[in-house]
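Need residues for this backbone.
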């Protein structure tokens, strides 16, 4: 017996997009296909009547997973619980309470199959509540996760074993007694010095150094006897008489009485690094000449991203952009934010593989002008083609970038002017044609001799009305032209809260009458812009929110500001009637476009909002659904 899916279609409950089968045969066929689909899957799909605590549906996959047929589950309502491993049954404690709250449940536990084998399963259950909130049914799916659980366990064991191997093999380990004689070395330590472990046992620490190194080590060991821990670089002599540099992390060994019993050192061979550093020092004089006579800044990092060298221009850029001077030996991450450093590391991985990464960045100078830089990251290879460092090149391209942006701005302005001309032509040809035609026609009527005085008066009144209509259109055109031309007003620091308070004062009578609530959350409290434009934008949006509020619902207007990198985001949201964007999105900001005729208006508000937002260099987008309010999202450059 497999999963039996019952399909019920409730009249008038489906979306207009749902296609209902033309006849019962199609419905039955669809039902059979769906049933076959679920029964063919390894996962177990089930439904349980929570009123009668009875399994009402279960797919055929139960036999493969549990070893029991679907009919057994339908007959024995406790069977599924009886199959849960005794040690895991507690995992289901409190499950029904969670389902009663309408929350889904997901659990992993073991089951004991009919053949007594143990399997891991994952069980996900979704509650179904009636209109009173009572749990009446649960639907769920159970799948076998035994293989993934076993793989996870093996992975954990393998990972622990792998870490143990790596941790013991990466560094040399060397311990000496209180007399500076070797009492333990691992294979890695012996390999570093070219000895076997047995050959090193019993030898003094100083037997592996020249006279200069011995004098340095004696001073270090005196500090060790006093309990000092150190990290230092020491030069040793190998069995073959060659120099080998090692980084030592040394710690004293103190017994429970506080007596010095020797020292432990973790030793890393840094010979190649030392050779690389020496090569860098030798070439630094030549690089310095190049560095300080170029229009680009350069910073040279070692393989660990510590600064090795930089030119004067790089130091000047760092002070300008980060407020910090560059220092040799400091790590690159000290000059970047955590977010930026994460991106830098990704780029360095690409650079280390041979790729040159180049990009453009901008920042605001103290005088509020923008500087543009072209940034390049390059890898530095040694003679064996191994990475031993990186170069950060930074060039000021402000002049070139400004010219390019100006060309783009001019092009955008030309396109906008063309659109404006087309729009004005449309307004003149459509909105002025009617009043002009009326005036001409009515004027001709005045020339007729058979008109009596009353008729002439009516004609004159109609001419006057047409002239007023024409004057209104001309005033609208003038208002649009003024909005598109930036005024002589200077930009200033504008506090959003002050602006909102001024708007609330302006519409005070309306606010009191309709109990309008303003909710403001300004993460960024101010913006550098033109006050009159920003006031007009927020005033028009507020006026629209009040005008098109839902009947019987107190209007709530929410205004927020957020910092987004080099932009300020201003969000304006209301709980009004909303707009059908599927139908009206393309004409939303159009001139004389109205979408709600139940309220008086000309269709100028949103057109002026968009015009003024763009006039001060911003963009505006809208999110809305009928009956759910409207949200406008505006972005302004900092």
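Answer:
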């Amino acid at each position: 017996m497999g999963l039996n899916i019952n399909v019920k279609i409730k009249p008038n409950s489906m979306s207009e997009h749902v296609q209902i089968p033309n006849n019962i045969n199609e419905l039955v066929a669809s039902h059979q296909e769906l049933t076959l689909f679920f029964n063919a899957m390894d996962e177990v799909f089930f439904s349980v009547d929570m009123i009668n605590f009875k399994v009402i549906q279960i797919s055929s996959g139960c036999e493969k997973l549990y070893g029991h047929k679907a009919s057994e589950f339908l007959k024995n309502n406790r069977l599924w619980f009886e199959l849960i491993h005794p040690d895991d049954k507690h995992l289901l404690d409190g499950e029904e309470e969670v389902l009663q709250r309408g929350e889904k449940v997901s659990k992993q536990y073991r089951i004991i199959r009919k053949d007594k084998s143990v399997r891991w399963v994952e069980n996900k259950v979704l509650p179904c509540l009636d209109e009173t909130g009572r749990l009446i049914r649960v639907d769920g799916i159970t799948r076998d996760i035994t293989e993934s659980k076993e793989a996870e366990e093996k992975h954990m064991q393998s990972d622990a074993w792998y870490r143990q191997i790596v941790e013991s093999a990466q560094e040399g380990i060397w311990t000496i007694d209180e007399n500076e004689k070797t009492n333990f070395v691992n294979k890695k330590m012996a390999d570093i010095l070219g000895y076997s472990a047995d050959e090193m046992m019993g030898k003094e620490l100083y037997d592996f150094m020249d006279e200069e190194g011995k004098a340095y080590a004696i001073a270090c060991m005196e500090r060790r006897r006093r309990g000092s821990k150190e990290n230092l670089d020491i030069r040793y002599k190998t069995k073959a008489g060659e120099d080998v540099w090692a980084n030592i992390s040394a710690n004293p060994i103190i017994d429970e009485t506080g007596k010095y019993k020797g020292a432990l050192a973790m030793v890393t061979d840094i010979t190649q690094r030392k050779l690389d550093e020496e090569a860098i020092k030798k070439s630094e004089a030549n690089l310095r000449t190049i560095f300080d006579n170029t229009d680009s800044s350069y910073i040279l990092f070692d393989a660990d991203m510590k600064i090795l060298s930089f030119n004067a221009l790089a130091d000047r850029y760092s002070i300008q952009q980060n407020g910090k001077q560059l220092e040799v030996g400091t790590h690159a991450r000290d000059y970047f934010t955590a977010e930026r450093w994460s991106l830098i590391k990704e780029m360095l991985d690409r650079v280390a593989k041979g790729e040159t990464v180049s990009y453009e960045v901008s920042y605001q100078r103290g005088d509020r002008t923008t500087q543009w830089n072209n940034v390049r990251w390059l890898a530095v290879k040694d003679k064996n083609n191994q990475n031993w460092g990186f170069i950060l090149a930074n060039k000021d391209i402000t002049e070139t970038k400004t010219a390019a942006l100006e060309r783009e701005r001019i092009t955008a302005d030309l396109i906008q002017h063309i659109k404006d001309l087309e729009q004005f032509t449309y307004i003149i040809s459509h909105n002025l044609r009617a009043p002009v035609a009326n005036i001409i026609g009515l004027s001709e009527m005045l020339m007729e001799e058979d008109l009596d005085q009353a008729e002439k008066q009516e004609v004159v009144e109609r001419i006057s009305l047409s002239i007023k209509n024409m004057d209104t259109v001309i005033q609208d055109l003038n208002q649009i032209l003024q909005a598109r031309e930036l005024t002589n007003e200077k930009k200033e620091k504008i506090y959003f809260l002050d602006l909102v308070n001024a708007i609330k004062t302006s519409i005070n009578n309306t606010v009191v009458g309709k109990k309008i609530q303003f909710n403001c959350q300004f993460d960024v409290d101010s913006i550098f812009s033109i006050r009159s434009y920003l006031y007009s934008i927020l005033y028009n949006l507020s006026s629209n929110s009040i005008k098109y509020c839902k009947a019987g619902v107190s209007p709530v207007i929410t205004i927020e500001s957020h910092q987004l990198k080099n932009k300020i985001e201003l969000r304006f949201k209301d709980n009004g009637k909303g707009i059908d964007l599927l139908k009206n999105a393309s004409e939303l900001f159009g001139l004389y476009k109205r979408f709600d005729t139940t309220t008086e208006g000309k269709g100028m508000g949103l057109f002026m909002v968009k015009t003024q937002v763009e006039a001060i260099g911003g963009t505006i987008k809208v999110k809305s659904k009928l009956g759910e309010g409207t949200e406008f999202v505006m972005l302004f450059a900092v």
